[in-house]
């Protein structure tokens, strides 16, 4: 398969920030299709090592001399304008393209593009759809924002017309995509370092709905109060889902002793089939209903839908069981938004435990500051909260907010909460405090998962 922005398969594409989960996936697709690939990143990682073994030229550190005989440069939104490789590209008149544009161009080469958007649940829903389409032998190309066992990573290169990807709303990047099926799981306040407010976010999702062609499909969660306006302005086929309202619904919901649900799938008034999920929580019922709606739109047989969902045991870092140490169960979750934290803690209530210890690492100063009130109200049900320092990600510490400030406010609300400032201190505290039967949750989008791994190892 060739793309109109690349002369031929002998062209060389360079990725600035190739070690990122999405950028590495794009690079891997090109390598699988015979293109020459190079890339740079600040740190060596299992991802960069894998790409190197696949034939990519990998450079650690960003330097102008990394740009050698390059036909196109792809960069992430996190790359600053003073990046030496970006400067070299501009000086040498080498074509440049940001990640979202590049992904959109890749999608152009496929007929059935499935773009899964929403503030929460994108990775899990994309993973569920991946399971279903693989079981149905559709041979899809897949880009997912997490590690998925069935594809041995975060990317799968197929040879069919099916392309499945997450569609992130950050900096409105998903407006550069070409969805045949566009999915909106929910609309919530996030990325307020870019968006003005929730209305600005809602308007961007409206624009996303409008890029779906008339013969395409918008699949949307009907019980989100921000969705009505989106649906009213869409100009394509619409399918809604929800637990109580929508075209596709769940009835007769029950939960097992691990918090995993079973339910009947209803289309309008007709029962289609029953399903047993192997991932916990009410939020995963909704993710499954979105996935089922996609599968039914693609006319996938019910047996493949059931097989795909029942064989799905989660994406890495999404309520992932890391292990059991001295009777303490360790679970890691990527939740970094108050709504996601509530969903994770709700799921944990149905999980076997005596006490719930939550180690939370806030993600970015902007998110912590703009959603500060929400963060002080989302830890209900936790017996002990341990706050790590804020994970800066792409930001710099301006002193505007800190994990200690968040902890002070939580303690004022009588939540049993402490602040610890190193992973070693956190692990020592956990070793001294946890007892057999306790549930330890490590929560956050940064590197807080290391705490659980250190606890188990020691």
Question: What would you say this structure looks like, in words?
Answer:
With 458 residues, the protein is an alpha/beta fold. The protein has three domains: 12-97, 3-Layer(aba) Sandwich (Rossmann fold), CATH 3.40.50; 110-310, Mur-like, catalytic domain (UDP-N-acetylmuramoyl-L-alanine:D-glutamate ligase, 3-Layer(aba) Sandwich); 320-457, Mur ligase, C-terminal domain (Protein-Tyrosine Phosphatase, Chain A), CATH 3.90.190. It has helices at residues 21-32, 46-54, 84-91, 99-107, 122-135, 198-210, 227-233, 282-297, 302-310, 338-349, 365-370, 372-375, 403-412, 423-433, 449-457; strands at 12-16, 36-41, 57-60, 72-75, 96-98, 112-117, 141-148, 153-156, 162-166, 181-184, 217-221, 237-242, 248-255, 260-267, 270-280, 320-325, 328-333, 356-360, 384-387, 417-419, 439-443. The strands form three sheets. The chain has a ten-stranded mixed β-sheet, with helices on both faces. Strands 16-17-21-18-19-20 form a six-stranded mixed β-sheet, sandwiched between helices. A five-stranded parallel β-sheet has the order 3-2-1-4-5, with helices on both faces. Helix 5 crosses helix 9 (302-310) and helix 6 packs parallel to helix 7. The radius of gyration is 22 Å and the shape is globular. The chain starts with 11 loop residues before the first strand and ends with a helix.
